[in-house]
Structures are given as C-alpha cells and as structure tokens.
Predict the structure.
Amino acid sequence: MKLADMTWPEVGALDRETVVIIPTGSNEQHGPHLPVFTDSILATAVSEAVEAKIGGKILLTPTLWLGASSHHLAFPGSLSNSMAGYNEALKAAIESLHRHGFWKFYVINGHGGNTSLNDVALRELKELHPNLLLGHSGYFTYCADLCAEVLEGPAKMIQHSCEAEVSLMMHVRPDLVREDKLRDDGLSIPVPGMIHFFDEMTEEGSRGYATLATAEKGKRLFDKAVDGLVNAVSLLHAGYNLGG
Amino acid sequence: MKLADMTWPEVGALDRETVVIIPTGSNEQHGPHLPVFTDSILATAVSEAVEAKIGGKILLTPTLWLGASSHHLAFPGSLSNSMAGYNEALKAAIESLHRHGFWKFYVINGHGGNTSLNDVALRELKELHPNLLLGHSGYFTYCADLCAEVLEGPAKMIQHSCEAEVSLMMHVRPDLVREDKLRDDGLSIPVPGMIHFFDEMTEEGSRGYATLATAEKGKRLFDKAVDGLVNAVSLLHAGYNLGG
Amino acid sequence: MKLADMTWPEVGALDRETVVIIPTGSNEQHGPHLPVFTDSILATAVSEAVEAKIGGKILLTPTLWLGASSHHLAFPGSLSNSMAGYNEALKAAIESLHRHGFWKFYVINGHGGNTSLNDVALRELKELHPNLLLGHSGYFTYCADLCAEVLEGPAKMIQHSCEAEVSLMMHVRPDLVREDKLRDDGLSIPVPGMIHFFDEMTEEGSRGYATLATAEKGKRLFDKAVDGLVNAVSLLHAGYNLGG
Amino acid sequence: MKLADMTWPEVGALDRETVVIIPTGSNEQHGPHLPVFTDSILATAVSEAVEAKIGGKILLTPTLWLGASSHHLAFPGSLSNSMAGYNEALKAAIESLHRHGFWKFYVINGHGGNTSLNDVALRELKELHPNLLLGHSGYFTYCADLCAEVLEGPAKMIQHSCEAEVSLMMHVRPDLVREDKLRDDGLSIPVPGMIHFFDEMTEEGSRGYATLATAEKGKRLFDKAVDGLVNAVSLLHAGYNLGG
Amino acid sequence: MKLADMTWPEVGALDRETVVIIPTGSNEQHGPHLPVFTDSILATAVSEAVEAKIGGKILLTPTLWLGASSHHLAFPGSLSNSMAGYNEALKAAIESLHRHGFWKFYVINGHGGNTSLNDVALRELKELHPNLLLGHSGYFTYCADLCAEVLEGPAKMIQHSCEAEVSLMMHVRPDLVREDKLRDDGLSIPVPGMIHFFDEMTEEGSRGYATLATAEKGKRLFDKAVDGLVNAVSLLHAGYNLGG
Amino acid sequence: MKLADMTWPEVGALDRETVVIIPTGSNEQHGPHLPVFTDSILATAVSEAVEAKIGGKILLTPTLWLGASSHHLAFPGSLSNSMAGYNEALKAAIESLHRHGFWKFYVINGHGGNTSLNDVALRELKELHPNLLLGHSGYFTYCADLCAEVLEGPAKMIQHSCEAEVSLMMHVRPDLVREDKLRDDGLSIPVPGMIHFFDEMTEEGSRGYATLATAEKGKRLFDKAVDGLVNAVSLLHAGYNLGG
C-alpha cells in the first residue's frame, strides 16, 4: 500500500506485521547526462516495483529525497540536507509510525552518501526503542553481483551516473536521459577511505563509463534488485529469524 | 523550470534573478475523506500551476513533504518531522542554492502547522545571509478573500479537510476524495492561541464543513491562489521594491 | 499573585487550577522615540493589570524579556536571543512549574517577533506533556478591533513604535517617551510574508504614525486588552471547554 | 546608563570603552524566609548601585533572571533554565552588543549555580571573538573576606538564604524578608565536589544561619561588594592591563 | 612522532606535510575471552607500529577510545559515547591541529561501530575546510584479503572477538587473552543491513570462531595491516594524487 | 580494578557499591618544558595510585584525555574538545555504567579548564538520574594546603606547568621533563574572573615558577593527593552520609 494515497482509518486498519518501506534518495548533480533527481527516481521506482509485487505486506512511505550531498554542492542545482537534518527526518518518520504500532522498518536507499547516515539514525532509534526491527540497504546492494557480470566497463560496481546508473535510468525514465551528453569520467583514488568532493575527482560530475549504458542492462539490474528486495522484505514480514 | 528533471549544467545556465519556489506540505491525517498527502498534493499542484504560467521566471524544487504535524500524531499514518528537523531541511535547501548564486526564494506552504517554522527558518537564514530575498506564505493566503465569498458553511476560511480543502482536492485529485466519507467535524475554541491536538478538538480528524465541498468551488479557489502567486512571484522576479 | 515575591511554601500552597501567566517581551530598538525595553514594559504592564484584577486566579512569573529580535540588530542596543535560546527559556520556565503540579499556562506576548517562537515552543511542550493546557497571544490581539476604530493614521493595527504603541507607552510610562523625537516611518511591502530587517524597511526603526499618538488612545487600547485577557484567563481558570 | 530606558540613538552615541554590565540571577526557592527572586534582586541591586556611582563608564543591561537552578526544582516556584538555554541567552546578549561595537563585558552574578555556566559561555565567546574583554564574578566574591569577619555563625561564607544573604535582603528589600520564618538549616558534605539537590541536604531549602542575619551586616557586605566592583569595573574601563 | 610526549615548540617545528594519525577504538564487551579495551589496544598497537616504521612522516595522537558502542551496552563494562559526542570529539581533534597548520589527517579505526561516524565527521569537516586532506579506514581493511586466506573458520573476515581479533590480541597482548574462556558464538543474519544489538545475536558477546585463534595468525594479519598502512600513509605524505 | 583490562563477566560480577573513578585530563601545551599530555598523565597516575591502594573498592575507567582547552589553542599540538563534545563524553561514560547498575561516580580531574564542565555535566546527570551519587574534584584540591607550605615561589597554588606541576612530573615521569627548558612565566590578572587565552598572559605557555621544581616536592604533593582521595573514595564506598 502507498501511504500517501491512504486515509488514516485505512492505515489504522493495517496489520502491524506490515513492513514499512522508506525510500531515501537525493537531489544532486549527476553529470551532464542525468537529472538531479536520479537517486530519488531510482529508489522510488525500485520501491514501487516491490510494492507492486507484495503490496499487501508493505506500507510504502513517500521518498525522503533531500539526501546528504555536501560532496556535490560545487555543482549548481545540488541540494544537500545537513547531516543533522537528514538524521532528524529519518528518525521522525519512523518514530511517527512506531507510535501507531508499526515496528518493522526497512530503508531502501538510492544514494551512497546516505548510507552512513542511515546507519547512524537507525542505531540511535534502536537504542531508544529496542524492540524495533530495523534495516537499511542500498537497492544496489541487491544487484551488486549482477553488476560484476553485466557491466562492460572496467568499473564493476555502481558508482555515480555511471554505466549502471545510466542503464537503470534508460530502463525507468528514458525521457530524462540526455543521450547526447553521455561521457566517461572520474579519477581513481589510491588510498582507501579518502573523503573527496566530486569536483575534485571528476571533470563534469559523473564517475564511470556512462557511454556503455543500455536500457537492457538497466532492466536486468532493476529486476535483480527488485527480486532481492521482495525476498528480503518478505522474510521481514513473515517473521524474520536470526539463523543458528 | 522544474529542478528535479534538470541537469546541473542546465541549472548553472539559469539567470540568477530566477525565483526559487519551494513547496512545503505534510503527510498527516485529513479525516476519513482525504488522503494523508493532501497538503503536499495541493502545495505541489498550486506551485506547478504557477510554474506552468511563468516557468521562465521560476526554479521549482521538489516538495518538502515531511511537515511539522505533531498535533496529528494520534491518528495512524501521520508523519511528523521534529521542529529541528523541519528547520534544518528548509534552511539546507535554500543554503544549497544560495551557494550556486540564487538569492530570491519564496516558500509556498500547504500546511498551517508549518507556518511558524517557515517564519523561524527564514529569519535565521536572513540573519546569516542578509542579502537574501526571502518570503513564505500559505497558498491559501492568496485565496482567503474568495473563501469568505465562496464557502457556504459557517467557517469562512480554510481549516483542515474542510469545505475549502475538500473542494480543492475535488478539483485537483478527485480520485483521492472518499466522497462517501465526507463529514462535518470540529469544536470551537473560546480563547485565542490555544495549542490543541486534533484528537482533542475533532471526532475524526477534520475541521469544518466538508459535506458542502464541490469541485467548482475548488477550481475557483485554486485559480485565485495561482493568480495571486503568479503576480507576487513576478514582482519578486522583476525587482521587487519596498514601497514608499 | 506575583511569583517573584513569593516563598516556595506560599507557591506550594496554591490551587493547581491557578493559571500561570508568562509575559514575553524584547529589548530592541523602538526608533528614536521609545526605549528599547518597550515591548517588555507593555507586556509586563498588561499582565500586572490583569493580575491586579484577578490575582487569585493567576500566578504571574517575571517577564522573559530577551526576545527574538534579530531583525533589529542593526540598531545599537538591540539584544536578541537566538531562536534556540528563546525556545529553551520558555519551555524551561513552563516545565519547571509543571513539575510542581501547575498545568494551565498562558503566555502574554508583547513582541511580534516572538509569536512564531511561542507557537513552536508550546507545540513542543504539548507533544511532551499532552495534558498541559497551553496558550499564547499578543496582548495586542485583544485590542485589535479597537485599533481599527481608534487609530487615526492609515495603519489600522499595531506595528512597531507606531501610533498604537507610542499611545500605550504614553499611558503606561510617559516619562520614557521622547515626545520631541516622534516621527512617522516605514515602507510598505508588496508581497505577503516577506522577511525583512528593520533597517531595510524603515529609516530610523519605527513603522507607522507615531506623531498621532496620545495617552488617551493608549488608555483605551490598554484597558481593552486587559479586559479581554481577564475574560480569557478567567475562562481558563474556570474550566475552559472546547465548544460544540 | 541603564540600557532598558535608552533609545537606540542614545546607545549608539556611547563611547565603546563603556563596560557592559550584565547581572545574572535566578528564580529559585530560598527557604521559607526569602522570596524566589532573591538572587536576581541582589545581583540587580548591586549592579544598580555600581551604576549609580560610575554610570558614565557602564551600560547596565536588564538582569538575566532565569538561572540554572535544577538543584532546587523539588521546591515549588523554582524555575530553572536548561543548561543550554542559559548558555545561549548569555552568549546572545553579549554577541548582540558586540555587533554594535562594545567589547568590554563583565557579568555580575547573584547565583552560585550560574558560576560554571558563566565560565563556559564566556570561554565559548572568547573562542569566537578573541578580541573581547570578558569577565564574570559573583558579587559575593567581592565581599568574601568581609564575610569571614562579619558573620557570627559557623559558616563563614555566603551559602544560600543564609546569615549573609538574609542580611543583604534585610538591607535591600526588608519588605520581602519573612522574619518570622527565619531558620538555620543544611547538612555538611564530607567529600569535596559532591553534586546534591537542595532537598537532599536541607530540610526547608536554606543553608546556613539565617537567624543571625541583620540589616546592618547586610549593609556592610553590600557596600563592600559595590566598592570592589566599582574598582574592578573602573579598571576595565580605564584600560585594564595584565600585570608584569 | 607521538604527540602526547612532545612539547608545543617541538610540534610547532614539524613539517606541515606531516600526516596526523588518529587512532579510534572502543571500550566495549568482547565476550568472556577478551578485555573491553581490545579495539583501542589494537588500533593503538597498529598505529604505533606504523609510527615505529615511518615516524618522521607522522604525528600520532592519543587514541580516541570512547567509541560508539550502543549495541554492546547490555553487557556490563561497555561504555558508549553518544553519536553526537563521538562526532564532536573527532572533529575537535582535527580542527585543533588544522589551526596549527596541519592539513593531512588519517583516522585508523579499530571498531566497526565507529566506521559510519568517522565517515560523517570527516565529511562535515571537509565541508567546513575544503582544503583538508582527510581519510579514515579500519586497520582491518588492510588485512582483509589475508583474512580470507589465513582464517580457518567459516567466517572469512574480522567480526568481533573472533578468530582474527583474538589472534591479533594473542600477538599483541597475550597476557590479556583469557584462553580458557575462548568460545565460538554468533547467529547469522538473513537480510542485509539489519541493525542488531549484540545481545540479540550472540550468547556471550563474541561473533566468530575464537577457538581457532593463534598468535601466529595474529602476527601475519598485524604485519599485513601495518605494511598496508605504511604504504598508504607514505602516499599521503609524499603528495598523494588522484589517479588518471 | 582497571576497567580496560577486564572482561564483561568480570565487570558484571562486581559489587555495585564499587566507586567508579573517571580521570579527566587534557592534551594541551605546557610550555617548553612539559609534554602536552601532562594533565592526563598526572590525573591517570594519581588515579592509578589510588587504585593500587584500594582497588577492591574502585572501578577505574580509562582517562578522558580530550579536555576543554580552547584557551591553549594558539600553541601547536594543543587539542581541545568542544564544550558540547566534552559534556557528551563524560555523561555518556557515566550513563553507560549506570545502566549496568553502578551508581557511585567520582571524577578525578587533572585540568583546571575541565572544572566548570565537569560541574555542568554532573548536574545534568543528577537531574536525569536523581539517585546517582556524583562528585568531581581536581586531584590538586587534595594537596592545596600542602602547596601553600611546600612551594617556594610566590605562587602558592597549582597553576599551569608551574613549580607544583613540574615537581609532580619530575616525580611521576621525569623522562618527559625538559629540565633545560624550565622557565618562570605568566602575568598577574588584576580583576577576578577574567577570561584569557594563555597566549595573552604568558610568553611561552606556562604560569608560575617552574625553575623551583623538584622531584621531592612532587612526591610530597602526589602522596598527599593520593591519601586524600583514598580517604574520600573510601567514604563514598562505605556509605557516605551527609553530616548533621
């Protein structure tokens, strides 16, 4: 079910085993070839596809689209929430529904820059409400293996406005891909864990081999992510158990 | 122009006299007859209608939909940002674009509970960045006079899921109005400025005379708000001047 | 009763239906003709007049005089609390007395710049302590109708160091009015909800028609505000009820 | 000069060597014999006496009366700001005047519970504005030596609603002293630096030998504190220098 | 060089290309067989070994040992900083030295629970000080490949008080390993990104195959991590460049 | 017992009358003759000496070494936590162990700049957890009387890198004293409570008569502090009572 369209008595009538799905995205530059809302578009599209398959097990909230994107702020049109603001928003959304009796929450993330913050926010919530069942993951985690197989460029993972992400957008919203602007970009980083702005490590904001993107690759990655999430969320719904 | 669909070079090419429009809404109970996303739907629809008329003067951001709705939290499905989280998000959105050279911002609000917070956030920004041109208003301010004329029930202003708001939804998203659930509701408050929860002062979450709503009233109010905003935003664009 | 003068056993002996009255003011420029403490002086004077009439129903706290006045900071002698600091102070005062069993609180405000903040603070308190009875209002709300009648200048409401406010000071503290400095000032703002500093929209800090002020107008406005507040606070004391 | 009574042009005309004096007090229980505003009354009275002597060197602000009094909250009528709220208020007052060119600030404190917080706030300000000249002290520091001489009870320092403080109130505001309620109270603490509530270490809220208080002792202590402060503030005004 | 032992003139004389190394650890339960300070001990030992090899390129600070360990708090003796407190401490340490002209910082982390927080803190710093060169990594990242080879149990990575971590402690501080208490523990988690407490997913606090640990394995992992870090830090010192 | 070396079952087995000892120090310049870790070294050494004498009554945590040292930041190598960060860390350490049933805490401080902050943090904790037994003191409080007797220079108290502190370091860690750099330094401050940076009131960072330091003086002061603390902590352990 999609929360936005429901009335409160309809929400009130839901089974409390329902898994609340919260998509998180961003509004940040994606090079000259993808729109700034790309991460939000993809996290939403994947989440809605999951909802289309197992809607009876899910309460899908609107997308928290104002991500943590300070590393993109040199590029016009990028919006970034503060770290504190992002943290508050995610916690507030979950605490609101927790008050109504929901206790299973899974965040489907479309923006790598949100990952650490999703982790911190959920850990803070767990501390406050130990009985909550909380999880978060990039949708891209669920198609990481397929990336290594499908991608033709040397980067075998989702990066940013890259072969994988452009492919996904060609599948989901081809009207928003500027095909004439596709370009490969991005420098390699020789030391693990360095913190860089995108204007330090790209020429025009993308990382990876966008010129190799195709809608067909996008469809395969998309379907893989949806299938994996359908499976994971179904486990959470059914009564997820820590294994022996 | 709609920011979400643009690439960063496209945003970068915009004239910096462009007025940034930020819609603010909520995800909160609207009685048994309207969906929880009503305020966000209406603020977005009005803003998009303004953009459709004078798009060349406007950069329209995605809607900040996670409003301050703690007074509705007793009703399932209501989400409320914390006061601090709401404040951070609005300020961060504006500061991001300020960094890119935009300096005219107008917030179009769809939820009364955000009004004080929009005021506080913009005043804090003004303190930090005195040269910004900042304003905020409910879209409903722009059709307040017409309300007094159009509404047939005793409440002559927009309240909550009332004659006016249901009429607007009948005009904008009739598919989401539960016509069979329409009801009049809400108690009167004998002292100015009292702080109440909606479960204290309504039976099922709405205030006003929803049973009197019609799509035609909605169209009139909607068009009036849009016209007023088109005029106001055009003033800001043209080089708004404080009068003598 | 006035809290400042009481001992703790005397406070402890009070009926817990007693309404706690908290005046909020400011210390900010009021043009060349009124002292910076004007808002605090007036909020205090009105509150004390209410207390003089129905002291047995009221516990009057000292005035929270450090208001939110960042829009006046260009003028020497203006002090402004931070938004966060103002919020903390008001909440802390109420939470302290809540701990002692008081549960009815009404804030009498003398400074427009505090209004949004009073709203936010009381809503946060209501969320934490749902059983509190909380309200806030400018004293000027209670004489707004009379303003339209009494004021001779084109501005028919209380603005800032204007015909109404100077009149009130001529009634309450004539020794502090610089009659030789009275002046009309202030520009009109063509778009609703714009955020401006007072140095942007006035020449010397006042808005309105101070030259038309008289002590007699002040007395009428003052008495009207006091009467309205006596009535409102008495309702809160007696067992205020939401109407049908 | 007293800030509250001044207009902004009058403040603007002041010499910027003027020392800003900020009294800090509390609104907290003082046993059955003194009113809750005692600390604020005394800090204000001392500050005004200093101003009466060397007013041309001083800009005296209104008293920050909402102190940090959580250790007194068990007693009805005690108000306590949060630690954060107190910190914000003091810093905001100073930063406001710093913006107007004042740079010499001295806090005259009337409440021991504010001491650590005054220290923290001023150190934070010094970090932000290294050129500020900042100091704080209890007025009681300036009569500490005389206490040892004047007080007859075994406690040879100012404690709380004690011989010294009651004496001061007998001198300053005898109408507010409940002479028939005077009592000795308070337990001794065998380990340095223990954190206690007043309901843990007193019977009725006072510490020390209030029954020994006299107005004459109060006058001597008061005058000593005023003289010491006049001297100290004059040094700050004249161009205070760190000694060799 | 080790900062703790140096005087300020000695620090002042250092070349500003020096890489500041900040070890981060924890004080949290490590099962019945390892002491609570394990993560701090290992992060410190690795960092000191790096310093022993290339001390002239490094300024090694004391270890930030109060980690983010809320997921371990059910076990006595575990200390956890708040998320905010951890963030402040790391940022403050770096900003202090940044003020002295150092601009290359690398955090060597010994506790997985700090990883997200190190990321957030460094990103916030980068936003404030864009010219800083900032990086962070678990020391365990540098021996991850060798883990897959060396470890005999089914878990092929460092977990918590596991085969790898106990081996490392057998190498570094064998006196602190309770060999008679070694045990295998920990449940598997069927969905990625779930947030769990250690009392939910272990019996006695450890995860992995501690019974298989040996000092020899520990030495190999330790040396591998040190070698990798020596190489990485040397790159940062020499003038680390983003690759083509 | 020393917490760092213990396992959680060992901590779990402790008597809850055990007094938790938390040393607090700093990492800040101590002139040209002492290392930056001096305050942490001394607070730790004193605490360990107390533990060596009455270890069965004590749980000694690692030292919170990142103190509040903003007044030393002009000198390279000084690290200062923010006021907020210091506050969070101390509260978090205590709240963690409070969760495990410990309720007696005593902070042994080695840095004057932490004193106000220790006071504020413990008062905040006391408000949250009224049943905690909380105290804090500089170790130097316990040898203050002896200072007046032992010190030969005109300063009869511990200042900073002075006769007393250098003497203590000569006793505890003579290898870290730069004897050839010892110097007397520091200006006198003619007004109580002034807030100064160390670069304003010293030439090279120390205050007092370091040239008069001897290891023997250090031993006497050290032993006196240890004895006093052993006595105080034993009282807390035994069932400390407020005296009549």
